[in-house]
């Protein structure tokens, strides 16, 4: 149940009715936005055009998640490993982040979205940091969906930086070793105060976590599909949510 695994959508899938229980919407949905490069290659376009098309999908999925009442949507946009990509692609991605904020922030604000970034933004270009800062400031008191964009994010890097902060607090005599528990560690991650993701969605056919939300996804449901991110639609989101609602989450119990 739940593995939706067809690159080309079958006719029956297009017409199949998707039923969502509006009383059991996942509070936190995390997405690995994969397949932009392949989407572009299939169309003989430069990879950056795939990222641009992926940006249009972000707009649609944020809107739909907001409408459904999802509380947190966390999108993996740039990992700590993505610096290894060609310089022009890295530059284009950073420019797209600035463009996205510039074009979308008023609409996001109007829809009560809280804009947030998880990851080490100190390594991002100055212009990027500035636009993130102003978007966060503008939307910080909103009451709707929190949109987390993971930028220069790595799950291991996040845990390392959390451990360093905890160690420093022990050295400063603010906490004791005995105070370390799961909650304390959660509180020292970028997602402090947020619920763990209920579901992690990865389109494009790759079946791995790629250093995403390692601590937080301990009990997440995983949902994979072969659709590339630029082709991902509101209907795919509905399908993922509906499959999630039909799973039996036991959290280690029976
Ligand atoms: C993975 O696909 C995608 C990324 C590394 C970048 C995701 C970025 C966006 C969707 C747009 C920019 C972000 C914002 C927040 C506006 P890939 O390039 O690895 O695809 P491939 O595996 O098919 O090559």
Automatic annotation (TrEMBL):
Keyword entries, A-Z: Magnesium, Metal-binding, Transferase
Entry superkingdom: Bacteria
Enzyme class: transferase
Cofactor annotation remark: Binds 2 magnesium ions per subunit.
Amino-acid positions noted as binding Mg(2+) in the UniProt annotation, renumbered to this chain: 34, 221
InterPro entries cross-referenced by the UniProt entry: UPP_synth-like, UPP_synth-like_CS, UPP_synth-like_sf
UniProt GO molecular function: ditrans,polycis-undecaprenyl-diphosphate synthase [(2E,6E)-farnesyl-diphosphate specific] activity
SUPFAM superfamilies the UniProt entry points to: Undecaprenyl diphosphate synthase (SSF64005)
Coiled coil: none
Active-site residues from the entry: 34, 82
Record-linked PROSITE patterns: UPP_SYNTHASE
Cofactor: Mg(2+)
UniProt EC number: 2.5.1.-
Binding site for substrate: 35-39, 47, 51, 79-81, 83, 85, 202, 208-210
Annotated function: Catalyzes the condensation of isopentenyl diphosphate (IPP) with allylic pyrophosphates generating different type of terpenoids.
UniProt cross-references to NCBIfam families, sorted A to Z: PRK14830.1, uppS
Family under the similarity heading: Belongs to the UPP synthase family.
Subunit structure of this chain's protein: Homodimer.
Name recorded for this polypeptide: Isoprenyl transferase
């Amino acid at each position: 149940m739940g593995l939706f695994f067809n690159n080309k959508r079958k006719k029956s899938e297009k017409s199949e009715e998707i039923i969502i229980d509006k009383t059991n919407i996942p509070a936190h949905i995390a997405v690995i936005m994969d397949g932009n490069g392949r989407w572009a290659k299939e169309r003989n376009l430069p990879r950056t055009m795939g990222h641009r098309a992926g940006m249009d999908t972000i707009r649609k999925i944020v809107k739909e998640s907001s409408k459904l009442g999802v509380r947190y949507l966390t999108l993996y946009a740039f990992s700590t490993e993505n610096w290894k990509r060609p310089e022009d692609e890295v530059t284009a991605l950073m420019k797209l982040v600035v463009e996205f904020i510039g074009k979308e922030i008023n609409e996001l604000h109007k829809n009560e979205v809280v804009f947030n970034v998880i990851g080490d933004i100190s390594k991002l270009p100055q212009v990027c940091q500035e636009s993130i800062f102003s978007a966060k400031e503008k939307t910080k008191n909103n009451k709707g969906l929190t949109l987390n964009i993971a930028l220069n994010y790595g799950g291991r890097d996040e845990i390392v930086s959390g451990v360093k902060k905890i160690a420093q607090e022990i050295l400063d005599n603010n906490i004791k070793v005995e105070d370390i528990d799961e909650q304390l560690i959660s509180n020292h991650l970028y997602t402090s105060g947020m619920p763990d993701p209920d579901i992690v969605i990865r389109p494009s056919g790759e079946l791995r976590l790629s250093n995403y939300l390692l601590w937080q996804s301990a009990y997440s449901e995983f949902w994979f599909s072969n659709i590339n991110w630029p082709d991902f639609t509101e209907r795919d989101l509905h399908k993922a949510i509906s499959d999630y609602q039909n799973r039996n989450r036991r959290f280690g119990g029976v």
